Structure formats: C-alpha cells, structure tokens
C-alpha cells in the first residue's frame, strides 16, 4: 500500500494509540509513507475542542522520525474542523511548525453534528443533504486546507437516522459538483476515506461517481486515508480505495511535503 494520509493518535480526543504504535502498525501493513493527522478543533461544541497540543505532538513526531528512520516516511499533518470559521486561529497554529499536510473537514454544519443522527432533527433527507453541501462549499472556498476530507461524511448521519448504507448523490449533482469545482480551482485535493467500512456504513467514499465528477471539474489531487483511531485500523480498506481512484480515471495518488504536492505515485 502506497500511503495512509489520515491517521489519529492520542493527540486526538477520540483516540488512545501512541504515535509509535500507529507507526509500527503502518510498517506491519507494508505502508511506506503516512501522515499523522490529529484533530484540531475550534468549534466549541466539538468533543475535541482545543484538545490538540502542538508542542507535545511535535516532540512525539520527532521521536518517531528518529526511531523509524528510512523505513517509514512520517508526514506531519492535522485534520482541521470548520477551518473557514476560525481562519485566524488555524493560521496561527499552522505557522508555528512546519506541517506537511492539512486535511480540511466539516464535522458541524449550522450547529448540527454530522456524525450524529440529530443532524437531521427537523430536516428531511434532501434538506439535510442540501444544508451540508452548502456549508461544505463555504469551507472549500474559504477554508485553510490541502485536501478536503470525507466529503460524503453525511453518510454517517444518514445511516443513523434513515438506516441507509449507501447514498446516491446524483439528485444533488449540481451542489456536489460546485464543491468539487471550487476544490479543483484552488488546486486542492480530495480524500478517499475508508472509515465507512469499519463503521458498517458501506464502501469507501466518496463514490467512483463523485470521483469522476471531481476529475471532470479539473481535480487532479487525490489522497487515501483509513481515518484510523486505533492501530489495528491503520491501512484498512486502502486497496479498495485505490481501486476506486483507478476506476475513476486518475493516474495516481499524490504525496505532500511542507504542504506542497511533491509527486504522484502512478497507479495505472
Ligand atoms: Zn473527520
Ligand atoms: Zn479523522
């Protein structure tokens, strides 16, 4: 497996694994490059609000880089929630250290949590989806990120409220394409996230259909992430994600260094 660019350690409020354990798990899976993307959240309702400690994260990262040397390339990352609403805080955080990779995530839209069924309180399925993609467009346009994470995260709330495992986004094509166009025009990327597999919500996402739309809108940068919160989840389902990227017609998967795409590993 070529990389895993979405991993959590105990520097995230919802994970217990040490960075060393996550690195060992990556090596055991035959993964040569990872990005440790712990949660950074400035949204007060979020469980991880103000939890991230950059100094401790960086000292663990340096230790792991020394420990694993050439065996494993460890990129310094963060997964920033709702960065478009907290630009000043986010930029100050990112300027303090040399991060390689920033995932942009939407976990809340209009005060509603995308990971809980209460997201849909008082909303129909279609109204909830519309509200989600409107807010995602704002993040895509104004936010600080390199790659937009789990763009179909609303599947989690859909699954919990409506017991639906898949989500056909074709009825919302215009809204979704608008987000993808903004991402492409800004020269940013899209992630294929495999966490849905371990959560029993279905295939990695977004779907091949959405990946194709991204390509048609000019998108060229794609990364893969297991979104592992435990060592045993590292690398899970990335082979399937890679097959989807290939099926959508992308020639490769992009790597980052110092927040710059540094190359593409060909998958053709
Ligand atoms: Zn997330
Ligand atoms: Zn995550």
What does this structure look like?
- It is built from nine helices and eleven strands.
- It has 268 residues and is α/β, with parallel strands linked by helices.
- It has a single domain (4-266), classed as Metal-dependent hydrolases (TIM Barrel, Alpha-Beta Barrel).
- The chain has a seven-stranded parallel beta sheet.
- Helix 1 (19-28) links the parallel strand 1 (4-7) and strand 2 (33-40).
- It starts with a strand and ends with a strand.
- The relative contact order is 0.15.
- Bound molecules: zinc ion (ZN) (2 copies).
Terminal Cα span: 14 Å
CATH architecture: Alpha-Beta Barrel
Structural class: alpha/beta
User: In percent terms, what proportion of residues is strand?
Assistant: 15-25%
CATH class category: Alpha Beta
Please give the number of β-strands: 11
Give me the strand/helix succession: EHEHEHEEEHEHHEHHEHEE
Q: Strands across the major sheet, in which order? A: 1-2-3-4-7-8-9
Task: List cofactors, ions and other ligands.
Answer: zinc ion
The percent of residues in helical segments reads: 25-40%
Question: How many DSSP helices?
Answer: 9
Note the overall shape: globular
Number of spatially distinct domains: 1
CATH topology: TIM Barrel
CATH homologous superfamily - what is it? Metal-dependent hydrolases
Low-confidence segments, given as residue ranges, are none
C-alpha Rg (nearest Å): 17 Å
Largest sheet: 7 strands, parallel
